[in-house]
Amino acid sequence: MKTKQLVSLALFVLICVLSINTASAQFRLGVRGGVDVASNKLNTDILKASNRLGFQIGPTAEFVVPISGFGGDISVLYGHKEYKISEKQDNASLSDYNYISVPINLKQRIKLGPLGLFVTGGVYGNVKVGDDNAKNANEVVNAFKHKNFIFGLGAGAGVTLFRNIDLGMYFRGDLTNNYKEEYMDADTFQNKKNQYWTVGLNYYF
User: What positions does the domain Outer membrane protein beta-barrel occupy (predicted)?
Assistant: First the structure.
């Protein structure tokens, strides 16, 4: 799938979000943050330093129709990607990097008294903005001038606390390969090296 088709898919999801009846929808701004983890097992070790592979943080906006609980959200996140030591040993060209991510999701909220549940799914695009191996401006330019953005699919679920806090587990899978290819490959999405799990927390004002 070429970049134009990938962008078309992203625009379709965005149109779905914007087509929500904004006259009756509740609009909220907030802050979204998350920690990427190597293992998604829900236990006391999930946020230990040895299991962390990076983070994301940034502003988010949400539209939700109160009666149905259906809506969507869009975020602009600054992220940092880290690789396992074993991965760096296997591939010397790997280095940690920073990126900007724009996820666009459809969302369904379910109220359960003082608590709530939510599920979300959509698309995201990442643009690399920094490389830990780059020593000067010329190296930064040379490292990224021929590389494209990463495009992928995401999904998540979790609980809502006190109406303002979302705590959940999120999955992301890249559809394009490591900022180098503009074509979608099913093998790329299925490769576990291109799949990420995030423990995330959103706070809405």
Answer: 26-173
